[in-house]
Design the sequence.
């Protein structure tokens, strides 16, 4: 049931939501087959999609319906929440749980489906390009195709079979993203098998905690790998108020410098900048799932007002009342315009 809430119909800004998910019905069927076959040795996948695909509770049932819709249902929900435009991307884990050949083909099909929807609704939707990290060179080719189709960035749903973009074998993706000036949205996935155990025991593996821990670590791995020194114009977007990293910046700088000086880890090499400087200069943050004024203001303060933008996390956290709450934040209309509209227009080069 759609929540009824009074939304300001004439704000001093357009509301652009930047982490909004979809899933082709074909892919959801493939997920169900993968879950039922138990061929994927990934307890995080079983926990996440075993629930969303089989539970008959109202919320997962609604999410299944809304993920597969790129027309009337989605637009009606946007209108009810006062959302002018969605940046849509393939839901987690996207194609990243499949074998190389399947992932490459499914990424292309998913991008074509999203492009068709954008063509039908050009003023309401823009899209992020799904890639198959399993095939970095082909991922770069798919990105080039998607640039020509008008996509606005790349979606990467964190780890791929337990491997991270900090591994240099994936760096052709960074090279292509930098060359084509396309931001990468680093979206969460459940922690891999060698990390998830204690979280599963306590029911903390998903969005409540595990997502943020795993994705924050992923971004830190990218930073400490030296990727931003090699690709200084690379831009990465993370959601959920930066997966807690803004609150750790002081300690990250201190301990990274101490570790480098001590030579404690062979993998930890000197960087050209502090960890916090990469967060301020190469990273953008959305508030997806975190409609909380104090956290938004803190990130604006320590990361920068030109780096923080709005996201709803549709359909997983579709809460129209959060829009009214954020409209009423104690900040100037100019800053709210940056948050809701201006930063997204800059990052994604929006013209609609």
Sequence:
């Amino acid at each position: 049931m759609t929540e009824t809430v009074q939304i300001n119909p004439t704000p001093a800004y357009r509301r652009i939501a930047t982490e909004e998910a979809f899933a082709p019905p074909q892919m959801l069927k493939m997920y169900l087959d993968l879950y039922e076959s138990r061929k994927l040795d990934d307890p995080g996948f079983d926990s996440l999609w075993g629930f969303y695909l089989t539970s008959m509770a109202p919320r997962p049932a609604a999410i299944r319906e809304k993920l597969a819709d790129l027309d009337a249902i989605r637009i009606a929900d946007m209108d009810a929440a006062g959302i002018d435009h969605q940046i849509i991307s393939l839901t987690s884990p996207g194609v990243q749980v499949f074998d190389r050949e399947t992932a490459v083909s499914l990424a292309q099909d998913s991008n074509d489906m999203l492009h068709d929807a954008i063509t039908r609704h050009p003023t309401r939707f823009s899209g992020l390009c799904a890639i198959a990290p399993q095939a970095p060179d082909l991922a770069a080719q798919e990105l080039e195709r998607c640039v020509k189709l008008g996509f606005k960035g790349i979606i990467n749903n964190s780890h791929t079979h337990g491997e991270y973009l900090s591994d240099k074998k994936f760096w052709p993706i960074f090279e292509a993203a930098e060359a084509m000036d396309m931001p990468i949205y680093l979206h969460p996935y459940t922690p891999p098998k060698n990390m998830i155990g204690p979280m599963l025991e306590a029911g903390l593996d998903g969005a409540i905690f595990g997502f943020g821990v795993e994705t924050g670590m992923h971004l830190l791995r990218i930073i400490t790998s030296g990727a931003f020194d090699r690709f200084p114009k690379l831009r990465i977007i993370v959601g959920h108020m930066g997966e807690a990293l803004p609150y750790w910046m002081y300690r990250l700088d201190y301990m990274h410098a101490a570790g480098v000086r001590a030579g404690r880890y062979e993998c930890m090499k000197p960087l050209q900048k502090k960890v916090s400087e990469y967060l301020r200069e190469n990273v953008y943050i959305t508030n997806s799932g975190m409609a909380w004024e104090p956290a938004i203001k803190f990130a604006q303060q320590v990361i920068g007002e030109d780096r923080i933008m709005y996201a709803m996390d549709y359909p997983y956290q579709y809460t129209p009342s959060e829009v009214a709450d954020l409209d009423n934040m104690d900040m100037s209309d100019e800053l709210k315009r940056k948050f809701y509209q201006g930063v997204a227009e800059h990052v994604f080069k929006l013209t609609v």
Summary: The chain has a mean pLDDT of 97.
